[in-house]
UniProtKB/TrEMBL annotation:
Identification of the protein by name: Integrase catalytic domain-containing protein
UniProt cross-references to PANTHER family, sorted A to Z: PROTEIN CBG26694 (PTHR37984), PROTEIN NYNRIN-LIKE (PTHR37984:SF5)
Species annotation: Austropuccinia psidii MF-1
UniProt-listed Gene3D superfamilies: Ribonuclease H-like superfamily/Ribonuclease H
Top-level taxon: Eukaryota
Length: 239
């Protein structure tokens, strides 16, 4: 996905599915249009009720052709974790901005600034910021928020660096050599005889014929897998 952006909505702990649906309709749908998918990071029952209530508020029935996924995907999960880390580090800085009339900004009122920082920051994968992909325009930023942007930028950079270090520690790619015997995950292989739930998680062993960069291997398949594509990502094989 080339264009990735975020929308941040603040909710209370006691919000119902209908309360959340109202907020989404008024603050999200009015800007983006209807959703084709909802990927839930939380309770699937709540998400299902939210999906239904949202369409009630829009005056239409839920279409059976519309997909509902009661689970998270990697991209959404990483973005949520990054936002959580940004908020945590913003709070750690103890950032408060007080005005002459007594109004004080805290993390809750500055959450939208974190969103602004994310959407106006250059992403390494695209060379542009999400705001540019979304609107085609360069976002203008208020000079009075320089202090806030500095802390928010620092929070985001710290969050990304923390996530990178954590990922590097827990996801060290195993080393494979040509001629070794390895097992291949059956998750990516269809049409294997027997009940899907009862089939083995891995098949093999098979001999490695070639290495494709640092992320994939080519194996000599046999038996039921003989006609399958012989190249697999490292996440789908093991010693």
């Amino acid at each position: 996905m080339i264009r990735v952006t975020i929308h941040v909505l603040l909710l209370c702990n006691d919000y119902t599915a209908m309360d959340t649906a109202l907020l989404m309709r008024n603050r999200l749908i009015s800007n983006t249009g209807l959703l084709t998918n909802i990927i839930s990071y939380g309770d699937p029952k709540f998400t299902s009720a939210l999906w239904t209530d949202l369409y009630k508020l829009l005056g239409t029935k839920l279409s059976f052709s519309t997909t509902y996924h009661p689970k998270t995907d990697g991209l959404a999960e990483k973005m949520i974790q990054t936002l959580e880390e940004m908020i945590s580090r913003l709070c750690a800085y103890g950032l408060e901005i007080k005005y002459s009339d007594g109004f004080t900004h805290d993390w809750c009122t500055l959450i939208t600034v974190l969103k602004l920082v994310y959407k106006t920051s250059i992403h390494a994968s695209t060379g542009k910021n999400p705001a540019m992909w979304e609107k085609g325009l360069k976002a203008k930023l208020p000079l009075l928020l320089d202090k806030v942007r500095h802390h928010a930028n620092q929070s985001m950079n710290d969050a990304f660096e923390y996530a990178k270090q954590k990922l590097d520690k827990s996801h060290k790619a195993p080393e494979f050599k040509v001629g070794e015997l390895i097992l291949v995950s059956t998750l990516s292989v269809n049409n294997i005889k027997g009940q899907k739930k009862l089939k083995d998680s891995f098949a093999g062993p098979f001999i490695i014929k070639a290495l494709h960069g640092k992320n994939a291997v080519q194996v000599q398949l046999s038996g039921e897998l003989e006609r399958k594509h012989p190249t697999f990502h490292l996440s789908l094989v093991k010693h």
